[in-house]
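If it is no trouble, might I ask you for a protein's amino acid sequence along with its backbone structure tokens?
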Amino acid sequence: MGAYILRRLALVIPTLIGIMVINFFLTQLVPGGPIDQITARLDGQGDVFRNIAGGSETPGSDSSSYQGARGLPPEFLDSLEVQFGFARFVCAEGFTGRPSSRAAECVKEAIPLWERFTIMMGNYLTFDFGQSYFRSISVVDLVLEKMPVSISLGLWSTLIAYLISIPLGIRKAVRDGSTFDTWTSGVIIVAYAIPGFLFAILLLVVFAGGSYLQWFPLRGLTSENWDQLSPLGKVLDYFWHIALPVTASLISSFATLTLLTKNSFLDEMRKQYVMTARAKGLSESRVLYGHVFRNAMLIVIAGFPGLFLSVFFGSSLIIETIFSLDGLGRMGFEAAVARDYPVIFGTLFVFGLIGLVVGILSDLMYVWVDPRIDFEGRG
């Protein structure tokens, strides 16, 4: 098993580099780079994308051809390109002045894409993710600032989904075709058909003072008087605030996981070894949890990384927006709109690395659930 883990770890770096290469060069083709964003704001135009749609901008992250930039000093635009790492000043030998003064001895030179990517990846391999273009804060500090919201949504949603869905799926499999199985399947199908954002709005309207009840807060992760609460009061206040967002995040994953568990158990219960175990006189619970459980849970465990990452990163944007939570989902969206490249690529690197490591942990859980699995023996 040790050799298999080492092989998987050895593939993490090239896979991660491949992810970064594709996303880096695709991002450069998108019009409206960070300099265009700044010049649009400073020139009072507000939105650079309106001018892109009108044809006054060509694709390129370091382009300053946006028409609002024409009213700004060229020295300012050059300093922005150098500050953001799109260009550098090359001065004549012996020059002692400031390069940004645009003296005749200094010339602005664009940095090629491949060189920018190499510099970026060299910094990322040492976990130096730089500083946000627009927030004057390091990417690491920014992610740590937003992490509690996403951890709350991802961790509790995944944990509750497994705690409810696995026992429910097993019960549905044991009582397949019964009244209980029929009406719970109807509820699950309805829950799966409801979009997460629509269910979140429904929760707000009904339980957060929209039109009916006001049992839960409308926004935020904690109350304004958080610091004044007792330790128990802080715990209760925290769960009070995350109850609705977690419920909205839970609905789709809960339905999928329940049906997956039921179908997996049904498939195993129809196999020959189960009939043999029953013929030997083993109790139903011993057959179910001593033999069927290990085999049926393999496919459920295999879906854990995808479920966790989808809840943690995928659906968080809509949930965070509806419940006014400031987490990684909103941060990533705002960074993409503003073309805040350090935030975009820094978080992509970290989350891609997390996803690859979680995939390896999923394989280890396979072996933990069923020791008969031997990845070393795979050809």
